Amino acid sequence: MWEKEKISNRLSVGLIALVFIFLSLQFAFFVAKVIEIRKYNKELAAVSSEEGGESSATGGESSVTGGGGSATEFGQNQSRKSDGVPSDGALPGGQRKGPQQTGTSAVQSKNLSGVVARTFSLEKLPPRPVRKPKPKVELNSADTTALMTLYGIGGYYARKIVEFRERLGGSFASEEQLMDIYGIDSARFVGFADRVYVDTSLIIPLDLYHMPVDSMARHPYIGKYAARGIDRYRRTVDSASFTLDALLENGILQRAYVQRLKMYQ
């Protein structure tokens, strides 16, 4: 029993000692921080006072320099008057002293010479090279190599353009038809729109009245379903009555596709 009480007393003393040590460390850390903050504030105040002294000294020099300039100018005016020459450099009889110049004219001539020197140095620079504009690409005669020179068009899209041209019947009727190709949106088209054109003499007209059904089925503006409808309709009418507007009225073709097909008539 006595031993248990002795052990508990020792544990109590040990805990009290640990708490005291912890508090002592916290107090020492706090004191160190306070000393560091005071030291930093003193250094900051010293730097601020030094900067203020330098600025005041600089102001004093400028004022002294200004006073010296005025004194020198006063001495020059006095020497000119003692020689019998007016302060503006004029001689008796309306003549002026050639070699001497006033301070303002000397500064102006110095600045002018600097401008002339800079202009002369710029004239010596070599001319900038003139970039030749890239040649335009004609969509109905271009191959994949020529199409790959367009911005944003690689080998994949160049092959798709040629394939789309073949499905159209061998020719484009407008540059905007490139946006009918899957993957070529308006953002991509704007990147090379100024470098492509269509030669209208190379447009191949479409004769839907005599066009084979499989060719119409492959056409991007017709398709398999419309090709069968066109084939049935053209068997019931003559060539004079067979028009794109008639196909639109009978619901065989959509209006947007009719407008595109009219470019080939």
Low-confidence stretches: 57-75, 81-87
Strand adjacency order, main sheet: 1-2
Main pleated-sheet profile:
2 strands, parallel
Per DSSP E runs of 2 or more residues, the count of β-strands stands at 2
Number of helices: 9
In percent, how much strand structure appears in the residues?
Answer: under 5%
- What is the total number of structural domains? 2
Shape: elongated
Give the rounded overall mean pLDDT.
77
Helix content: 55-70%
Rg value: 48 Å
Please state the structural category: mainly alpha
The N- and C-terminal alpha carbons lie at a distance of: 119 Å
Summarize the helix and strand pattern as letters.
HHEHHHEHHHH
How would you portray this structure in words?
- This protein is mainly α and 265 residues long.
- It has two domains: 1-85; 137-264, no CATH class.
- The protein has nine helices and two strands.
- Strands 1-2 form a two-stranded parallel ribbon.
- The model is unreliable at 57-75 and 81-87 (pLDDT under 50).
Secondary structure: elements and pairs:
Layout: H1 2-82, H2 103-124, E1 137-138, H3 144-147, H4 155-167, H5 186-190, E2 196-197, H6 213-218, H7 223-234, H8 244-249, H9 255-261
Parallel strand pairs: 1-2
Descriptive terms for the model:
9 helices; mainly alpha; about 260 residues; elongated; 2 strands; 2 domains; two-stranded parallel ribbon; single chain
Summarize this structure briefly.
This protein is mostly helical and 265 residues long. The protein has helices at 2-82, 103-124, 144-147, 155-167, 186-190, 213-218, 223-234, 244-249, 255-261; strands at residues 137-138, 196-197.
